[in-house]
Amino acid sequence: MSKENFYDLGDYDAIQRHIKIEREKARKLRKSSWWEAHIQKGLCYFCQQLVGADNLTMDHLVPLARGGKSTKGNIVPACQACNKKKQLETPVETLLDQIKIQSDQ
Question: Out of 11, 25, 51, 95, which could bridge 70 as a Cys pair, Cβ 3.0 to 4.6 Å?
Answer without folding.
Answer: 25
